[in-house]
Protein backbone atom coordinates (compact mmCIF):
# COMPACT_ATOMS: atom_id res chain seq x y z
CA UNK A 1 0.00 0.00 0.00
CA UNK A 2 1.25 3.61 -0.57
CA UNK A 3 3.17 5.33 2.20
CA UNK A 4 3.58 9.05 2.92
CA UNK A 5 6.92 9.24 1.15
CA UNK A 6 5.60 7.71 -2.04
CA UNK A 7 7.21 4.29 -1.62
CA UNK A 8 5.29 1.06 -1.54
CA UNK A 9 5.12 -1.02 1.59
CA UNK A 10 4.55 -4.74 1.04
CA UNK A 11 2.35 -5.98 3.84
CA UNK A 12 2.62 -9.68 4.60
CA UNK A 13 -0.85 -11.08 5.06
CA UNK A 14 -1.46 -14.00 7.37
CA UNK A 15 -4.77 -15.70 7.99
CA UNK A 16 -5.91 -15.34 11.57
CA UNK A 17 -5.88 -18.39 13.89
CA UNK A 18 -8.97 -20.40 13.22
CA UNK A 19 -8.94 -19.58 9.53
CA UNK A 20 -7.38 -21.89 6.99
CA UNK A 21 -4.62 -20.47 4.84
CA UNK A 22 -5.26 -19.84 1.16
CA UNK A 23 -1.96 -18.96 -0.49
CA UNK A 24 -1.61 -17.39 -3.91
CA UNK A 25 -0.16 -19.72 -6.45
CA UNK A 26 3.56 -19.29 -7.03
CA UNK A 27 4.71 -19.10 -10.61
CA UNK A 28 7.46 -21.46 -11.71
CA UNK A 29 7.77 -25.17 -11.22
CA UNK A 30 11.13 -25.23 -9.47
CA UNK A 31 12.64 -23.07 -6.77
CA UNK A 32 14.91 -23.19 -3.74
CA UNK A 33 12.18 -24.85 -1.68
CA UNK A 34 12.10 -27.72 -4.16
CA UNK A 35 15.85 -28.22 -3.78
CA UNK A 36 15.39 -28.28 0.00
CA UNK A 37 12.64 -30.90 -0.44
CA UNK A 38 14.90 -33.03 -2.65
CA UNK A 39 17.74 -32.88 -0.12
CA UNK A 40 15.39 -33.82 2.71
CA UNK A 41 14.13 -36.75 0.62
CA UNK A 42 17.66 -38.11 0.23
CA UNK A 43 18.29 -37.46 3.92
CA UNK A 44 15.27 -39.54 4.88
CA UNK A 45 16.36 -42.28 2.45
CA UNK A 46 19.85 -42.34 3.97
CA UNK A 47 18.38 -42.51 7.46
CA UNK A 48 16.38 -45.61 6.58
CA UNK A 49 19.30 -47.33 4.84
CA UNK A 50 21.32 -46.88 8.04
CA UNK A 51 18.38 -48.16 10.08
CA UNK A 52 17.64 -51.31 8.09
CA UNK A 53 21.03 -52.49 6.82
CA UNK A 54 21.87 -54.27 10.08
CA UNK A 55 18.86 -56.58 9.75
CA UNK A 56 20.33 -57.89 6.48
CA UNK A 57 23.98 -57.82 7.52
CA UNK A 58 23.39 -59.82 10.69
CA UNK A 59 22.29 -62.80 8.59
CA UNK A 60 25.74 -62.89 6.99
CA UNK A 61 27.53 -62.16 10.28
CA UNK A 62 26.12 -65.09 12.29
CA UNK A 63 27.25 -68.71 12.04
CA UNK A 64 23.80 -70.26 11.92
CA UNK A 65 25.12 -73.80 11.45
CA UNK A 66 27.07 -73.76 14.72
CA UNK A 67 24.20 -72.34 16.77
CA UNK A 68 22.16 -74.79 18.85
CA UNK A 69 19.00 -75.67 16.98
CA UNK A 70 15.76 -74.80 18.72
CA UNK A 71 12.53 -76.50 17.69
CA UNK A 72 10.40 -74.29 15.43
CA UNK A 73 6.73 -74.43 16.27
CA UNK A 74 4.49 -74.63 13.22
CA UNK A 75 0.98 -75.89 12.67
CA UNK A 76 -0.29 -78.63 10.38
CA UNK A 77 -3.10 -76.46 9.01
CA UNK A 78 -1.15 -75.69 5.84
CA UNK A 79 1.19 -78.68 5.76
CA UNK A 80 0.56 -79.28 2.05
CA UNK A 81 1.40 -75.71 1.04
CA UNK A 82 3.44 -75.80 -2.17
CA UNK A 83 5.29 -72.67 -0.97
CA UNK A 84 6.47 -74.47 2.16
CA UNK A 85 9.66 -73.19 3.79
CA UNK A 86 11.19 -76.61 3.41
CA UNK A 87 11.25 -76.19 -0.37
CA UNK A 88 13.13 -72.91 -0.20
CA UNK A 89 16.82 -73.34 0.40
CA UNK A 90 19.08 -70.65 1.75
CA UNK A 91 22.56 -71.01 0.33
CA UNK A 92 24.17 -68.06 2.08
CA UNK A 93 27.60 -68.54 3.61
CA UNK A 94 27.75 -68.73 7.39
CA UNK A 95 29.43 -65.90 9.26
CA UNK A 96 31.92 -65.91 12.10
CA UNK A 97 29.84 -64.87 15.11
CA UNK A 98 28.03 -67.23 17.47
CA UNK A 99 25.27 -64.91 18.59
CA UNK A 100 22.14 -66.45 20.02
CA UNK A 101 18.71 -65.31 18.91
CA UNK A 102 18.41 -63.25 22.09
CA UNK A 103 21.76 -61.54 21.47
CA UNK A 104 20.74 -60.77 17.90
CA UNK A 105 17.56 -59.20 19.25
CA UNK A 106 19.54 -56.95 21.60
CA UNK A 107 21.83 -55.89 18.76
CA UNK A 108 18.95 -55.04 16.45
CA UNK A 109 16.88 -53.23 19.07
CA UNK A 110 19.76 -51.16 20.52
CA UNK A 111 19.54 -48.75 17.59
CA UNK A 112 15.88 -47.98 18.27
CA UNK A 113 16.38 -47.25 21.96
CA UNK A 114 18.96 -44.61 21.04
CA UNK A 115 16.64 -43.34 18.32
CA UNK A 116 13.79 -42.77 20.77
CA UNK A 117 15.90 -41.08 23.46
CA UNK A 118 16.97 -38.10 21.34
CA UNK A 119 13.59 -37.39 19.74
CA UNK A 120 12.19 -34.88 22.24
CA UNK A 121 15.45 -33.22 23.38
CA UNK A 122 16.54 -32.56 19.80
CA UNK A 123 13.09 -31.31 18.86
CA UNK A 124 13.29 -28.73 21.67
CA UNK A 125 16.92 -27.78 21.01
CA UNK A 126 16.28 -27.45 17.26
CA UNK A 127 13.57 -24.91 18.06
CA UNK A 128 16.17 -22.75 19.85
CA UNK A 129 19.32 -23.33 17.82
CA UNK A 130 17.96 -24.34 14.41
CA UNK A 131 17.02 -27.70 12.89
CA UNK A 132 19.63 -27.78 10.13
CA UNK A 133 22.70 -28.31 12.30
CA UNK A 134 21.03 -31.05 14.34
CA UNK A 135 19.84 -32.80 11.19
CA UNK A 136 23.23 -32.69 9.46
CA UNK A 137 25.16 -33.38 12.68
CA UNK A 138 22.93 -36.29 13.65
CA UNK A 139 23.35 -37.99 10.30
CA UNK A 140 27.12 -37.44 10.40
CA UNK A 141 27.27 -39.06 13.86
CA UNK A 142 25.17 -41.94 12.54
CA UNK A 143 27.49 -42.33 9.55
CA UNK A 144 30.77 -42.18 11.48
CA UNK A 145 29.68 -44.81 13.97
CA UNK A 146 28.36 -46.89 11.07
CA UNK A 147 31.98 -47.19 9.94
CA UNK A 148 32.80 -48.64 13.39
CA UNK A 149 30.25 -51.46 13.25
CA UNK A 150 32.59 -54.09 11.69
CA UNK A 151 35.43 -53.29 14.11
CA UNK A 152 33.19 -53.18 17.19
CA UNK A 153 31.71 -56.57 16.31
CA UNK A 154 35.15 -58.18 16.63
CA UNK A 155 35.31 -57.04 20.28
CA UNK A 156 31.97 -58.62 21.21
CA UNK A 157 28.27 -57.92 21.42
CA UNK A 158 28.50 -55.18 24.08
CA UNK A 159 30.75 -52.85 22.00
CA UNK A 160 28.55 -53.50 18.96
CA UNK A 161 25.39 -52.72 20.93
CA UNK A 162 26.97 -49.46 22.16
CA UNK A 163 27.93 -48.44 18.61
CA UNK A 164 24.44 -49.19 17.29
CA UNK A 165 22.92 -47.33 20.25
CA UNK A 166 24.99 -44.23 19.40
CA UNK A 167 23.92 -44.55 15.76
CA UNK A 168 20.33 -44.43 16.99
CA UNK A 169 21.10 -41.32 19.04
CA UNK A 170 22.35 -39.68 15.85
CA UNK A 171 19.25 -40.61 13.88
CA UNK A 172 16.84 -39.40 16.55
CA UNK A 173 16.81 -35.77 15.30
CA UNK A 174 16.00 -36.74 11.70
CA UNK A 175 12.19 -36.79 11.80
CA UNK A 176 11.50 -33.81 14.12
CA UNK A 177 14.16 -31.67 12.43
CA UNK A 178 12.91 -32.61 8.97
CA UNK A 179 9.44 -31.57 10.06
CA UNK A 180 10.78 -28.27 11.38
CA UNK A 181 12.52 -27.60 8.06
CA UNK A 182 9.36 -28.37 6.10
CA UNK A 183 7.38 -26.00 8.32
CA UNK A 184 9.79 -23.17 7.50
CA UNK A 185 10.13 -23.83 3.77
CA UNK A 186 6.86 -25.20 2.37
CA UNK A 187 3.72 -23.09 1.75
CA UNK A 188 0.45 -24.61 3.03
CA UNK A 189 -0.98 -25.47 -0.41
CA UNK A 190 2.14 -27.49 -1.27
CA UNK A 191 2.60 -29.35 2.01
CA UNK A 192 0.81 -32.56 1.08
CA UNK A 193 3.00 -33.39 -1.89
CA UNK A 194 6.27 -31.95 -0.54
CA UNK A 195 5.96 -33.76 2.78
CA UNK A 196 4.91 -36.97 1.03
CA UNK A 197 7.92 -36.77 -1.28
CA UNK A 198 10.25 -36.28 1.68
CA UNK A 199 8.81 -39.07 3.83
CA UNK A 200 8.57 -41.39 0.83
CA UNK A 201 12.35 -41.42 1.18
CA UNK A 202 11.76 -43.92 4.00
CA UNK A 203 10.27 -46.47 1.61
CA UNK A 204 12.86 -45.61 -1.05
CA UNK A 205 15.69 -46.16 1.42
CA UNK A 206 14.23 -49.46 2.58
CA UNK A 207 13.71 -50.74 -0.96
CA UNK A 208 17.30 -49.81 -1.87
CA UNK A 209 18.94 -50.91 1.37
CA UNK A 210 17.57 -54.43 1.76
CA UNK A 211 18.46 -55.91 -1.65
CA UNK A 212 21.70 -53.92 -2.02
CA UNK A 213 22.84 -54.99 1.45
CA UNK A 214 22.21 -58.60 0.45
CA UNK A 215 24.28 -58.18 -2.72
CA UNK A 216 27.18 -56.51 -0.87
CA UNK A 217 27.22 -59.19 1.83
CA UNK A 218 27.84 -61.86 -0.84
CA UNK A 219 30.54 -59.95 -2.71
CA UNK A 220 33.91 -61.10 -1.39
CA UNK A 221 35.60 -58.69 -3.81
CA UNK A 222 34.45 -55.78 -1.66
CA UNK A 223 35.01 -57.54 1.66
CA UNK A 224 31.61 -59.12 2.25
CA UNK A 225 29.20 -57.84 4.90
CA UNK A 226 31.50 -55.05 6.30
CA UNK A 227 31.15 -53.28 2.93
CA UNK A 228 27.46 -52.71 3.78
CA UNK A 229 28.37 -50.31 6.57
CA UNK A 230 31.26 -48.69 4.70
CA UNK A 231 29.12 -48.03 1.62
CA UNK A 232 26.01 -46.67 3.32
CA UNK A 233 28.08 -44.84 5.93
CA UNK A 234 30.04 -43.13 3.17
CA UNK A 235 26.93 -42.12 1.23
CA UNK A 236 25.30 -40.71 4.38
CA UNK A 237 28.45 -38.79 5.35
CA UNK A 238 28.62 -37.20 1.90
CA UNK A 239 24.95 -36.22 2.14
CA UNK A 240 25.53 -34.63 5.56
CA UNK A 241 28.33 -32.43 4.21
CA UNK A 242 26.46 -31.42 1.05
CA UNK A 243 23.28 -30.72 3.02
CA UNK A 244 25.07 -28.56 5.60
CA UNK A 245 26.73 -26.36 2.99
CA UNK A 246 23.91 -26.06 0.44
CA UNK A 247 20.73 -25.86 2.54
CA UNK A 248 19.78 -23.00 4.85
CA UNK A 249 17.64 -22.91 7.96
CA UNK A 250 14.84 -20.87 6.41
CA UNK A 251 14.15 -18.61 3.40
CA UNK A 252 14.99 -15.51 5.42
CA UNK A 253 18.60 -16.66 5.95
CA UNK A 254 19.21 -17.96 2.42
CA UNK A 255 21.56 -15.59 0.53
CA UNK A 256 20.69 -16.68 -3.00
CA UNK A 257 16.96 -17.46 -2.99
CA UNK A 258 14.82 -15.55 -5.47
CA UNK A 259 13.28 -12.51 -3.77
CA UNK A 260 9.76 -13.34 -4.98
CA UNK A 261 10.02 -16.90 -3.71
CA UNK A 262 11.28 -15.69 -0.31
CA UNK A 263 8.39 -13.25 -0.04
CA UNK A 264 5.90 -15.90 -1.14
CA UNK A 265 7.06 -18.44 1.46
CA UNK A 266 7.31 -15.97 4.34
CA UNK A 267 3.92 -14.50 3.44
CA UNK A 268 2.08 -17.82 3.41
CA UNK A 269 3.96 -19.55 6.24
CA UNK A 270 4.93 -16.88 8.76
CA UNK A 271 2.69 -13.94 8.05
CA UNK A 272 3.16 -10.37 9.17
CA UNK A 273 5.16 -11.47 12.19
CA UNK A 274 8.00 -12.68 10.01
CA UNK A 275 10.27 -15.56 10.98
CA UNK A 276 9.90 -15.56 14.75
CA UNK A 277 10.81 -17.88 17.60
CA UNK A 278 8.67 -17.26 20.72
CA UNK A 279 8.68 -19.44 23.86
CA UNK A 280 6.95 -22.80 23.53
CA UNK A 281 3.35 -22.61 24.87
CA UNK A 282 3.47 -25.98 26.64
CA UNK A 283 0.18 -25.59 28.52
CA UNK A 284 -1.76 -24.56 25.43
CA UNK A 285 -0.30 -27.44 23.42
CA UNK A 286 -1.29 -29.88 26.16
CA UNK A 287 -4.88 -28.61 26.01
CA UNK A 288 -5.08 -28.67 22.20
CA UNK A 289 -7.41 -31.36 20.86
CA UNK A 290 -6.01 -31.08 17.28
CA UNK A 291 -2.58 -31.93 18.72
CA UNK A 292 -4.00 -34.91 20.62
CA UNK A 293 -5.73 -36.06 17.44
CA UNK A 294 -2.36 -36.14 15.67
CA UNK A 295 -0.74 -37.93 18.61
CA UNK A 296 -3.41 -40.64 18.77
CA UNK A 297 -3.29 -41.14 15.00
CA UNK A 298 0.51 -41.46 15.15
CA UNK A 299 0.21 -44.11 17.88
CA UNK A 300 -2.28 -46.08 15.80
CA UNK A 301 -0.02 -45.79 12.77
CA UNK A 302 3.08 -47.19 14.46
CA UNK A 303 1.26 -50.01 16.20
CA UNK A 304 -0.54 -51.08 13.05
CA UNK A 305 2.49 -50.65 10.80
CA UNK A 306 4.69 -52.74 13.11
CA UNK A 307 2.08 -55.48 13.00
CA UNK A 308 1.91 -55.34 9.22
CA UNK A 309 5.67 -55.31 8.71
CA UNK A 310 6.90 -57.62 11.47
CA UNK A 311 4.07 -59.98 12.30
CA UNK A 312 2.58 -60.91 8.93
CA UNK A 313 5.86 -62.50 7.74
CA UNK A 314 5.97 -64.50 10.98
CA UNK A 315 2.37 -65.62 10.42
CA UNK A 316 3.23 -66.73 6.92
CA UNK A 317 6.19 -68.70 8.22
CA UNK A 318 4.49 -70.33 11.21
CA UNK A 319 1.08 -71.03 9.70
CA UNK A 320 1.37 -70.79 5.91
CA UNK A 321 4.96 -72.14 5.90
CA UNK A 322 6.00 -69.46 3.48
CA UNK A 323 8.76 -66.98 4.32
CA UNK A 324 8.24 -63.72 2.46
CA UNK A 325 11.70 -62.49 3.53
CA UNK A 326 13.28 -65.12 1.24
CA UNK A 327 11.60 -63.58 -1.78
CA UNK A 328 13.29 -60.24 -2.39
CA UNK A 329 10.80 -58.90 -4.94
CA UNK A 330 7.77 -59.88 -2.88
CA UNK A 331 9.24 -58.35 0.30
CA UNK A 332 9.76 -55.05 -1.55
CA UNK A 333 6.24 -54.90 -3.01
CA UNK A 334 4.51 -53.39 0.05
CA UNK A 335 7.14 -50.65 0.35
CA UNK A 336 6.91 -49.89 -3.36
CA UNK A 337 3.13 -49.73 -3.17
CA UNK A 338 3.26 -47.37 -0.18
CA UNK A 339 5.85 -45.20 -1.90
CA UNK A 340 3.77 -44.93 -5.08
CA UNK A 341 0.47 -44.26 -3.35
CA UNK A 342 1.89 -41.75 -0.85
CA UNK A 343 3.34 -39.58 -3.63
CA UNK A 344 0.42 -39.87 -6.06
CA UNK A 345 -2.23 -39.30 -3.39
CA UNK A 346 -0.35 -36.23 -2.11
CA UNK A 347 -0.63 -34.57 -5.52
CA UNK A 348 -4.35 -35.32 -5.51
CA UNK A 349 -4.64 -33.86 -2.00
CA UNK A 350 -2.97 -30.59 -2.98
CA UNK A 351 -5.08 -30.44 -6.16
CA UNK A 352 -8.24 -30.81 -4.07
CA UNK A 353 -7.09 -27.91 -1.88
CA UNK A 354 -5.97 -25.61 -4.71
CA UNK A 355 -8.52 -26.36 -7.42
CA UNK A 356 -11.53 -28.05 -5.82
CA UNK A 357 -11.46 -25.53 -2.98
CA UNK A 358 -11.80 -28.18 -0.29
CA UNK A 359 -10.52 -27.10 3.09
CA UNK A 360 -7.22 -28.39 4.41
CA UNK A 361 -9.09 -30.11 7.25
CA UNK A 362 -11.40 -32.06 4.93
CA UNK A 363 -8.51 -33.18 2.73
CA UNK A 364 -6.43 -34.27 5.72
CA UNK A 365 -9.34 -36.35 7.05
CA UNK A 366 -10.08 -37.96 3.69
CA UNK A 367 -6.44 -38.95 3.23
CA UNK A 368 -6.17 -40.15 6.83
CA UNK A 369 -9.35 -42.21 6.50
CA UNK A 370 -7.88 -44.05 3.50
CA UNK A 371 -4.51 -44.37 5.21
CA UNK A 372 -5.88 -46.14 8.29
CA UNK A 373 -9.16 -47.76 7.30
CA UNK A 374 -7.39 -49.36 4.32
CA UNK A 375 -4.82 -51.37 6.33
CA UNK A 376 -7.41 -52.06 9.06
CA UNK A 377 -9.59 -53.85 6.51
CA UNK A 378 -6.52 -55.53 5.00
CA UNK A 379 -5.53 -57.01 8.36
CA UNK A 380 -8.98 -58.51 8.81
CA UNK A 381 -8.84 -59.87 5.28
CA UNK A 382 -5.40 -61.39 5.88
CA UNK A 383 -6.76 -63.33 8.84
CA UNK A 384 -9.23 -65.13 6.55
CA UNK A 385 -6.96 -66.04 3.64
CA UNK A 386 -6.66 -69.66 4.71
CA UNK A 387 -3.60 -71.44 3.30
CA UNK A 388 -3.09 -68.99 0.45
CA UNK A 389 0.21 -67.09 0.75
CA UNK A 390 -0.20 -65.40 -2.64
CA UNK A 391 -3.49 -63.85 -1.51
CA UNK A 392 -1.89 -62.82 1.80
CA UNK A 393 0.95 -61.07 -0.06
CA UNK A 394 -1.59 -59.29 -2.26
CA UNK A 395 -3.58 -58.10 0.75
CA UNK A 396 -0.39 -57.04 2.52
CA UNK A 397 0.66 -55.03 -0.53
CA UNK A 398 -2.72 -53.30 -0.88
CA UNK A 399 -2.96 -52.62 2.85
CA UNK A 400 0.52 -51.13 3.18
CA UNK A 401 0.04 -49.25 -0.09
CA UNK A 402 -3.14 -47.54 1.12
CA UNK A 403 -1.33 -46.74 4.35
CA UNK A 404 0.58 -44.16 2.29
CA UNK A 405 -2.43 -41.87 2.65
CA UNK A 406 -1.18 -40.87 6.10
CA UNK A 407 1.46 -38.61 4.54
CA UNK A 408 -1.31 -36.30 3.37
CA UNK A 409 -3.18 -36.92 6.63
CA UNK A 410 -1.84 -36.69 10.17
CA UNK A 411 1.82 -36.79 9.14
CA UNK A 412 1.71 -33.30 7.64
CA UNK A 413 -0.90 -31.99 10.07
CA UNK A 414 1.72 -30.68 12.54
CA UNK A 415 2.74 -28.15 9.91
CA UNK A 416 -0.83 -26.93 9.52
CA UNK A 417 -1.72 -26.30 13.14
CA UNK A 418 1.64 -24.82 14.19
CA UNK A 419 4.37 -23.98 11.66
CA UNK A 420 6.60 -22.49 14.35
CA UNK A 421 6.43 -25.49 16.71
CA UNK A 422 6.00 -28.30 14.15
CA UNK A 423 9.37 -29.88 14.96
CA UNK A 424 8.61 -30.03 18.68
CA UNK A 425 5.14 -31.45 18.07
CA UNK A 426 6.60 -34.12 15.80
CA UNK A 427 9.27 -35.03 18.36
CA UNK A 428 6.59 -35.74 20.96
CA UNK A 429 4.24 -37.67 18.69
CA UNK A 430 7.05 -39.65 17.05
CA UNK A 431 8.57 -40.63 20.42
CA UNK A 432 5.21 -41.73 21.84
CA UNK A 433 4.29 -43.59 18.66
CA UNK A 434 7.59 -45.46 18.56
CA UNK A 435 7.06 -46.58 22.15
CA UNK A 436 3.60 -47.82 21.19
CA UNK A 437 5.05 -49.59 18.15
CA UNK A 438 7.33 -51.63 20.40
CA UNK A 439 4.21 -53.11 22.02
CA UNK A 440 3.03 -54.72 18.77
CA UNK A 441 5.42 -57.72 18.76
CA UNK A 442 5.10 -58.09 22.56
CA UNK A 443 1.30 -58.33 22.44
CA UNK A 444 1.42 -60.58 19.39
CA UNK A 445 3.87 -62.90 21.13
CA UNK A 446 1.64 -63.08 24.20
CA UNK A 447 -1.44 -63.95 22.13
CA UNK A 448 0.18 -66.69 19.99
CA UNK A 449 2.35 -68.20 22.74
CA UNK A 450 1.84 -71.96 22.67
CA UNK A 451 -0.76 -71.84 19.91
CA UNK A 452 0.63 -70.51 16.62
CA UNK A 453 -2.48 -71.29 14.61
CA UNK A 454 -4.80 -69.31 12.39
CA UNK A 455 -7.27 -68.65 15.18
CA UNK A 456 -4.62 -67.05 17.42
CA UNK A 457 -3.17 -65.02 14.58
CA UNK A 458 -6.65 -63.81 13.71
CA UNK A 459 -6.80 -62.31 17.21
CA UNK A 460 -3.47 -60.54 16.59
CA UNK A 461 -4.77 -59.02 13.37
CA UNK A 462 -8.08 -57.99 14.91
CA UNK A 463 -6.28 -56.19 17.76
CA UNK A 464 -4.15 -54.22 15.28
CA UNK A 465 -7.17 -53.51 13.10
CA UNK A 466 -9.08 -52.24 16.14
CA UNK A 467 -6.20 -49.93 17.08
CA UNK A 468 -6.19 -48.54 13.54
CA UNK A 469 -9.96 -48.05 13.63
CA UNK A 470 -10.24 -46.44 17.08
CA UNK A 471 -7.27 -44.10 16.61
CA UNK A 472 -8.51 -43.06 13.19
CA UNK A 473 -12.00 -42.31 14.48
CA UNK A 474 -10.48 -40.12 17.20
CA UNK A 475 -8.54 -38.24 14.55
CA UNK A 476 -11.55 -37.79 12.28
CA UNK A 477 -13.55 -36.30 15.16
CA UNK A 478 -11.00 -33.94 16.71
CA UNK A 479 -8.47 -33.14 13.97
CA UNK A 480 -8.16 -29.71 12.42
CA UNK A 481 -5.81 -28.01 9.98
CA UNK A 482 -6.49 -24.51 11.24
CA UNK A 483 -3.48 -22.72 12.64
CA UNK A 484 -4.01 -22.74 16.39
CA UNK A 485 -4.42 -19.58 18.50
CA UNK A 486 -1.35 -20.48 20.58
CA UNK A 487 0.76 -20.11 17.39
CA UNK A 488 -0.52 -16.61 16.59
CA UNK A 489 2.43 -14.29 15.74
CA UNK A 490 0.32 -11.24 16.56
CA UNK A 491 0.31 -12.21 20.25
CA UNK A 492 4.12 -12.33 20.50
CA UNK A 493 5.99 -9.79 22.57
CA UNK A 494 7.10 -6.78 20.48
CA UNK A 495 10.52 -7.49 18.93
CA UNK A 496 13.57 -5.31 19.37
CA UNK A 497 15.19 -3.85 16.21
CA UNK A 498 18.08 -6.32 16.47
CA UNK A 499 15.95 -9.45 16.30
CA UNK A 500 15.48 -11.39 13.03
CA UNK A 501 11.75 -10.86 13.33
CA UNK A 502 12.11 -7.10 13.37
CA UNK A 503 14.61 -7.12 10.54
CA UNK A 504 12.26 -9.22 8.38
CA UNK A 505 9.35 -6.83 8.90
CA UNK A 506 11.58 -3.87 8.13
CA UNK A 507 12.84 -5.47 4.93
CA UNK A 508 9.28 -5.72 3.57
CA UNK A 509 9.10 -1.94 3.33
CA UNK A 510 10.97 -0.36 0.43
Total number of helices: 20
Task: Kindly state the number of beta strands.
Answer: 0
Overall pLDDT confidence: 82
What is the H/E string? Answer: HHHHHHHHHHHHHHHHHHHH
Poorly predicted ranges: 1-27, 86-90, 498-510
Radius of gyration: 24 Å
Topology, pairings included?
Elements: H1 32-61, H2 101-117, H3 119-129, H4 131-147, H5 149-154, H6 157-171, H7 174-185, H8 191-217, H9 226-246, H10 259-269, H11 282-286, H12 289-318, H13 328-354, H14 360-382, H15 389-402, H16 410-417, H17 422-437, H18 439-448, H19 454-478, H20 500-507
Helix pairs in contact: 1-4, 1-7, 1-8, 1-9, 2-6, 3-4, 3-7, 3-17, 4-6, 4-7, 4-9, 7-16, 7-17, 8-9, 8-13, 12-14, 12-15, 12-16, 12-17, 12-18, 12-19, 13-14, 13-15, 14-15, 14-16, 14-19, 16-17, 18-19
Written account of the structure:
There is one protein chain. It contains 20 helices and no strands. The chain has about 500 residues and is mainly alpha-helical. α14 runs antiparallel to α15. The chain starts with about 30 loop residues before the first helix and ends with a helix. Residues about 1-25, about 85-90 and about 500-510 have low confidence and may be disordered.
Task: Write a compact overview of the structure shown.
The chain is mostly helical and about 500 residues long. About 65% of the residues lie in helices and about 0% in strands. The protein is built from 20 helices and no strands.
Descriptive labels:
disordered N terminus; 510 residues; 20 helices; globular; mainly alpha
